[in-house]
Amino acid sequence: MSLRSPLRRVTGHGSAKGGVAHWYAQRVSAVALVLLGLWLVVSLATLGGASHARVVQWLSSPIASALAVLLVLTAAYHALLGLQVVVEDYVADKGTRVGVLLAIKFALAVAAVIGVLAVLRIAFGVAA
User: Fold this and answer.
1) Handedness of CA 67, 72, 78, 80 (dihedral sign)
2) According to CATH, what is the number of the domain 6-123?
3) Which of 29, 36, 47, 122 could form a disulfide with 71 if both were Cys (CB 3.0 to 4.6 A apart)?
4) CA–CA separation, 74 vs 117, rounded Å?
């Protein structure tokens, strides 16, 4: 039998109060990815066997390039949210968990910047 109160026993072991926002952000980004993915699949299907020049011309349009940038950023954000959950659930050591999360955030930020720059380079017609 313990003389500690029920509140004292659970102090530090309760909710972090951030789970709902994380869950909601994951669902919103998933819906956005579905819509943007459908846009990309339909757009590429309508291009069919188009030449490289035609695809570049399509991606150079303001709407296509803006949606492509949005797709890249949303995919990186959604991946970050999902990987964060996996790491927080399965990496026990706090130092390792922080290091892995920082590495994931850095890698996804680099990937997102590369993706956005690639789309912008095509959109603005910058030659290689």
Assistant:
1) negative
2) 1.20.1300.10
3) 36
4) 15
CB contact at 8 A, 28 and 74: no
Q: Can you give the chain as a three-state secondary structure string?
A: CCCCCHHHHHCCCCCCCCHHHHHHHHHHHHHHHHHHHHHHHHHHHHHCCCCHHHHHHHHCCHHHHHHHHHHHHHHHHHHHHHHHHHHHHHCCCHHHHHHHHHHHHHHHHHHHHHHHHHHHHHHCCCCC
- Predicted confidence (pLDDT) per residue in 24-71, tens digit: 999 999 999 999 999 999 999 999 888 999 999 999 999 999 999 999
What are the residue ranges spanned by the domains of the chain? Answer: 6-123
Distance CA 54, CA 60 (A): 10
Q: Please tell me the pTM assigned to this model.
A: 0.83
